[in-house]
Amino acid sequence: MKEKDFFTLQEFSELCELEMDFLQDLVQFGLIKITLEGKNRGVYREELECVRLIKRLYFDLGVNKEGIEIILSMRNQIMELHKQVDDLGREVNRLNKEQNFRNIEIILEKGLMIDV
To answer: How far is the C-alpha of 106 from the C-alpha of 92, rounded, in Å?
Structure first.
């Protein structure tokens, strides 16, 4: 059976074990993205990880909503930087392979012997 991807606010509140008022506060504060699908306002499954983090920060660590907003923003920036580093690493590897092929071509053109 396929997992459900879209939840009404009430369903999402129950799934996350959050009071509806608190969930609506998070929505109003812009910490959770609400989507209009058909006639229903709701949340996609991908927001679950973010809500779990918000719950931990708010309830377990006592971070206020302003602090959570900053933490989530920094987290997103870090994730984007990680992606850029990964992309750059792949590009460096690609360029290194290209350079190695060029070196081999030069050696072969000059008829030089190499130990492999």
So the answer is: 21
What does the pLDDT look like over 30-79, one tens digit per residue?
Answer: 999 899 888 888 999 999 999 999 999 999 999 999 999 999 999 999 99
Which range marks the domain in which residue 35 is found?
1-63
Domain containing residue 32: CATH number: 1.10.1660
Question: Residue 50 is encoded by which pair of tokens?
Answer: 């973010």
Query: Is residue 33 left, alpha or beta, with left meaning phi > 0 and alpha meaning psi from -120 to 50?
Result: beta
DSSP lists the bridge partners of residue 8 as 42
Residue 100 shares a structural domain with residue 70: yes
Q: Write down the pTM of the prediction.
A: 0.73
Reported for 44-48, long-range contacts at CB under 8 A and 24+ positions apart, including other chains, are 44/5, 44/6, 44/7, 45/3, 45/4, 45/5, 45/6, 45/7, 47/12, 48/15, 48/16
